[in-house]
Write a structure and sequence with these properties.
- Among the domains are: 51 residues, no CATH class; 104 residues, Aspartate Aminotransferase, domain 1 (Alpha-Beta Complex), CATH 3.90.1150.10.
- Helices cover 45% and strands 8% of the residues.
- The protein contains seven helices and five strands; from the N terminus they run H-H-E-H-E-H-H-E-E-H-E-H.
- The strands form two sheets. Strands 3-4-5 form a three-stranded antiparallel sheet.
- The two termini are 36 Å apart.
Length: 247
């Protein structure tokens, strides 16, 4: 996305496919398509991109073996949904014991020979991107910035005396996507909606957490600058000062 209603997409560029902004994009696209192709109202227009949850059934239907069973490594909400859908077509073996909520990553086991395969993928990526020297230069430039951006937000959460709460185990926290609740570990809907509305007024969009878990999610992608991260941090501090007594 380059631009939508003159909103800077670099400032937390997550946009839900269920949001009002995207609904407007979808409805306008359908309207233009009907006009250009003279599609009458008695016909429906379907946009069939075939992604996301569509793959949950497509994978077992296309890849099942003669025994019609598969091992599923369930480490989060989406892999859990994928395994549940697959039970309609094949027998599911759970590689890891179930857990909820998903705030840690299961330990590796001898069954998952992922180290060799992941090493292969990493080496191919390094080769295709200029080799070791190029990788070293990238890390020297980006790593301190990535760490600094994440530290900026996590420190505010840690020092908020419970006003902000990140549910993910510190050992497994992402440097890119930072989910948190406002007003306690369970979150306060009124405070979180107020926080999101205030952020939008300041030009920071897409901070609403996924609908399956709620809360807030700050996505510190490479396009997000340190200045933009600090802008969010200052807003979080100000919001806490104004609303701390309400939680």
């Amino acid at each position: 996305m380059i631009n939508l209603h003159s909103v800077d997409p670099k400032i937390f560029p997550e946009m839900s496919h269920r949001s009002k902004d995207f609904a407007e994009v979808l409805n306008t696209t359908e309207k233009l398509l009907r006009e250009e192709m003279s599609i009458p109202n008695e016909f429906e227009v379907l946009f069939l991109q075939g992604g996301a949850t569509g793959q949950f059934s497509a994978i077992p239907l296309n890849l099942k073996n003669d025994k019609e069973s598969a091992d599923y490594a369930i480490t989060g909400s989406w892999s859990s949904k994928s395994a549940l859908e697959a039970t309609k077509y094949i027998n599911i073996n759970h590689v890891f014991p179930p857990q909820k909520p998903y705030v840690t990553i299961p330990d590796e086991t001898w069954r998952c020979f992922r180290r060799i395969y992941i090493t292969k993928l990493v080496l191919e990526w390094i080769r295709d991107n200029g080799g070791v020297n190029s990788l070293r230069e990238r890390n020297q430039v980006r790593s301190p910035l990535v760490m600094a951006k994440a530290k900026c937000i996590y420190e505010i959460i840690s020092n908020s005396k419970g006003f902000y709460s990140c549910p993910v185990d510190p050992k497994y926290r992402s440097l890119m996507n930072i989910p948190f609740r406002i007003g306690g570990t369970a979150g306060d809907d009124e405070l979180e909606n107020k926080f999101i509305a205030g952020a939008v007024e300041m030009g920071m969009i897409g901070l609403k957490g996924h609908r399956s878990v709620g809360g807030i999610r700050a996505s510190l992608y490479n396009a997000i600058t340190m200045e933009e991260t600090m802008k969010l941090g200052e807003y979080m501090k100000h919001f806490m000062e104004v609303n701390y007594s309400n939680h």
